[in-house]
Amino acid sequence: MTLTKDHIGGLIFLCFSVAYGYYANQIPLFPGDEYEPFHAKSMPTMLAMLGIALSLLQLVAAHRKNQVKASDMLSLVGLDFKIISKLLVLMVLFAMALEWVGFLLSTVFFLAGGYWLLGERRPKILFLASVPFATGFWYVLTQLLDIYLAPGRFWAFI
């Protein structure tokens, strides 16, 4: 049997999804919540099941080449590690900015920065691709799902 990048990616995602599902079932519930249709374990459990299903689908549907060279299977050629590392730094900055400037503003800057790193340079597109999405996601979380998102320390000082 020949393992390709698709197989390895599917196996890694399968392991991650199984571990996520295991830890999702360790979430404690308040008394009486086990009888509710939606509780703290519901969404993480559904995400774990979806991840397991998609990774199994990836494993089954992965293209097997009859004659694959060893250098083709695990080649890192074509991966831009500079952009990958910059995106990882951007994610860390986003996590740090959440506490200080709040969800909405840090999400807008994170999305705009990510788009900019990936090659989009037009300010109008950066604005239109990040602000409506971040605002809509904020609206869904805070207004529809009634999830509290702290405004950030910066806004508390003002």
Structural account:
- InterPro entries: DUF1468.
- This is TctB.
- Keywords: Membrane, Transmembrane, Transmembrane helix.
- The chain has 158 residues and is mostly helical.
- The protein folds into two domains: 63 residues; 73 residues, no CATH class.
- The protein is 68% helix and 0% strand.
- It has seven helices and no strands.
- α1 runs antiparallel to α2, α4 runs antiparallel to α5 and α5 packs antiparallel against α6.
- The radius of gyration is 21 Å and the shape is flat.
- The N and C termini lie far apart (63 Å).
- The mean pLDDT is 87.
Keywords:
transmembrane helix; membrane; DUF1468; 158 residues; transmembrane
Please describe the biggest sheet, giving its number of strands, its sense, and whether it closes into a barrel.
Answer: none
- Tell me the β content: under 5%
Question: How much helix, percentage-wise, in residues?
Answer: 55-70%
- Count of extended strands: 0
Model regions low in confidence, pLDDT < 50 over at least 5 residues:
none
Radius of gyration: 21 Å
Give the mean pLDDT: 87
What distance lies between the first and last C-alpha atoms, to the nearest angstrom? 63 Å
- What is the helix/strand order? HHHHHHH
Q: Which overall shape is indicated by the principal axes computed on the Cα atoms?
A: flat
* Tally of contiguous helical segments: 7
Number of domains: 2
- Quickly give the structural class: mainly alpha
How is this fold's topology laid out?
Layout: H1 5-24, H2 42-61, H3 70-73, H4 81-101, H5 103-117, H6 123-144, H7 153-157
Helix pairs in contact: 1-2, 4-5, 5-6
